[in-house]
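To illustrate the input format used throughout this study, we show a single complete record. The first block contains the structure-token representation of the backbone; no residue identities are included at this stage. The design step must infer an amino acid for every position from geometry alone.
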């Protein structure tokens, strides 16, 4: 019967993506078989549920084809002790992923940000392979990884996929997931409350995996950089795993001390480029299936052809099409897709930094001289930050050029973009103001 199971696995390998096979099917072992049922073993409950939900029908179908008869499939969790430290609870069980995954410290991780849900293409295959290798501890070249891409390309997805995988396979690991700004704020809080030694011990002695997003926001934060560099020294020497993400190479992050820059540069740097047409099609197909939507093939190809900037823009198009169809009670067709896309696609050739300045100044009732001045009045600073953010979003100009356009340094432009991005997450007045300005720019009314 083992020969039948091996033949079944070989057939499954040909029908699903290779990375899915390696992660979910290859580790399965046959433990018993009788006349009408077969039992396989899995590492943990998370893997068991994922295999049954996504591949159970396929496994039963291939078994029937290979063996010539039907078998009822069951999966048992292997009765092995978890990777635990002394005095850990041997009966520890990871909860099924029906809520967002909570690391031992830091931010929530999205349950759907897994390797299984990540669409691999020529634009990201190296980053994906490096991430999976580091998470699974198979053929890992080194213990630190630097994920590099523009916003909306999937670096946060891969970063959290590493975290989700490690927590499922090695539940006793002490994993911290946070942004560089979180780290900085926590350190400042520790200094103010005379608990800096506790803070140092936490990251240097009680952390097995550190997921640190948006490290470019450390620009100019000298004290945080010193502390982080010392922490990284300890983690590197202890063989701990560290995953960074950023939209800038370490060498391009301004006002970064040499020691920290060197530490970041020692990581395996994996770039994520914009997806090509075939990958965009697969992303739309996968996200539509995951959300229970059925889109005609011509609509998917149209969206993939028109929405070329990043994964978030693809998601926006998919959500727009399905939502409009549901609200209006009309079928999803090319005409509906075109009506959605025209409100998303940016006419970059018409949107310039000067056009953005004029629109922002008119909206906030300030002058062009005000927005490029050295004034630190809040009534000037906020519009200036938003104009810099929009310039980064709607033009291809590098940060240095955008900064000079507003009489600001590269680091200041980066800080402005970060301030607006944080404001957008708060779902407050700034979000509504930025959304209004975006609509004006995208409609050509500027």
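Output of the design step:
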């Amino acid at each position: 019967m083992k020969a039948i199971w091996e033949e079944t696995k070989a057939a499954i390998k040909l029908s699903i993506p290779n990375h899915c096979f390696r992660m979910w099917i290859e580790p399965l072992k046959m433990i018993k078989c009788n006349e009408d049922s077969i039992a396989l073993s899995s590492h943990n409950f998370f893997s068991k549920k994922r295999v049954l939900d996504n591949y159970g029908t396929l496994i039963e179908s291939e078994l029937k084809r290979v063996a010539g008869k039907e078998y009822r499939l069951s999966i048992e969790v292997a009765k092995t002790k978890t990777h635990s430290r002394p005095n850990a609870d041997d009966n520890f069980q990871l909860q099924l992923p029906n809520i967002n995954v909570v690391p031992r410290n830091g931010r929530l991780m999205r349950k759907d940000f897994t390797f299984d849900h990540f669409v691999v293409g020529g634009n990201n295959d190296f980053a994906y392979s490096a991430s999976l290798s580091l998470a699974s501890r198979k053929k890992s070249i080194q213990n630190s990884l630097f994920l590099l891409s523009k916003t909306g390309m999937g670096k946060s997805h891969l970063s959290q996929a590493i975290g989700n995988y490690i927590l499922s396979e090695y539940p006793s690991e002490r994993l911290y997931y946070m942004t560089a700004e979180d780290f900085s704020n926590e350190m400042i809080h520790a200094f103010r409350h005379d608990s800096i030694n506790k803070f140092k011990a936490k990251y240097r002695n009680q952390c097995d995996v550190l997921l640190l997003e948006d490290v470019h926001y450390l620009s100019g934060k000298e004290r945080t950089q010193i502390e982080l560099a010392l922490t990284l020294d300890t983690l590197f020497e202890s063989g701990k795993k560290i995953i960074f993400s950023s939209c800038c190479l370490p060498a391009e992050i301004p006002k970064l001390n040499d020691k920290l820059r060197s530490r970041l540069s020692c990581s395996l740097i994996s770039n994520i480029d914009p997806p090509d047409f075939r990958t965009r099609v697969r992303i739309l197909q996968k996200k539509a299936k995951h959300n229970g939507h059925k889109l005609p093939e011509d609509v998917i190809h149209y969206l993939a052809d028109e929405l070329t900037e990043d994964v978030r823009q693809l998601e926006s198009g998919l959500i727009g099409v399905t939502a409009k169809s549901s609200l209006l009670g009309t079928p999803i067709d090319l005409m509906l897709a075109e009506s959605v896309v025209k409100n998303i696609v940016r006419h970059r050739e018409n949107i310039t930094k000067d056009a953005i300045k004029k629109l922002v100044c008119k909206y906030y009732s300030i002058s062009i001289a005000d927005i490029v001045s050295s004034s630190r009045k809040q009534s000037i600073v906020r519009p200036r930050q938003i104009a810099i953010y929009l310039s980064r979003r709607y033009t291809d100009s590098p940060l240095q050029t955008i900064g000079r356009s507003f009489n600001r340094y590269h680091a200041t432009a980066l800080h402005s973009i970060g301030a607006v991005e944080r404001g957008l997450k708060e779902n407050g007045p700034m979000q509504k103001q930025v959304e209004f300005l975006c609509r004006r720019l995208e409609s050509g009314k500027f």
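Structural context for interpreting the output: The mean pLDDT is 85. Residues 353-443 form a domain with the Chromosomal Replication Initiator Protein Dnaa; Chain: A; fold (CATH 1.10.1750.10).
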